[in-house]
Amino acid sequence: MLSLALAAALLLPQDTRTEAISTLAGLFPTPSGPMTLVVDDPENADTCWSMVEKYGELTGQHITAHSDTQSLLMQSPVHLDRNMTIPADEVQTTFEHILFARDFVLTPLKRDGMRLLEIQSLSTPARSNIRSAAIFLEPEDLHLAAAHPAMIFTTVVTLPHTDVRQVSNSMRTMITDANTQQLLPAGNSNSMVIVGIGQSLVGLADTLRTIDAAAADGAEKYVTTMELIRLENAVADDVVTLLNAAFGVEAETQGPAGLKFLPDARTNSILVNAPASRLERIKQLIAALDGKGASK
């Protein structure tokens, strides 16, 4: 069943639903200055919690967290290789990247007047409720999610040439974290409700559109298959960069013959969408890159 928050979003009038876009755009003011994270001084080394405090001071945002989550934030170093000074216009995205790398997500609690954000941990029992805080975005505005790697969003993707129930069943292996991800056919329509984190959700929507475009084309060379490949040694993002270069795949679009490589940093996996005739060769290439450790 749809979550109450998502069902409510889908039933809202158009002007109310699009209000979420303007709210999102104005929710994160540009910080008053750069943010410096210290790691080389044991007495003053930053934890995730001290980073949150610095973020609040620079942005004027008020932030809350459950006591269990706050304890985890205080115990979690930022884990940088050296001190880092983040330019003001990059503070928001970098702040979220570090939070998500440490298994935290950011959700708005109060979006007008004195704004209030909440940080939630993916390592506490409360994580089962995180998905209900997803922000609804219209499909044409989904690109906004890419700038927020620690926030959960939901949207509706229409796939006129695809059996959405069959596709959702086939893609279950993509759901590596049921607390932050969801694929849900919307009744008997050709639409699918998808939930996910930032850029991962954008990539998922792109993959679904690629599948639908392949179905519409009808040419055998565009019939693709998907497989989730976990890496042991290399870093998924690095391997995807090499694959994109090797096959001529642009980062924001599908490549030739429906090729798409989507990294999942949390599980160090790559979702491959490719013609069945080329999949085995691609898997062999990924295995070779993984064996050599593409990140080294």
Automatic annotation (TrEMBL):
The keyword Membrane applies. It is found in: Membrane. One of its GO terms (cellular component) is type II protein secretion system complex. Signal peptide: none annotated. Its main location: membrane. One of its GO terms (biological process) is protein secretion. Residues 227-291 form the NolW-like domain. Pfam families: Secretin_N. Keywords: Membrane, Signal. InterPro entries: Bact_Secretion_Sys_Channel, NolW-like, NolW-like_sf. This is Type II secretion system protein D. The gene is gspD_1.
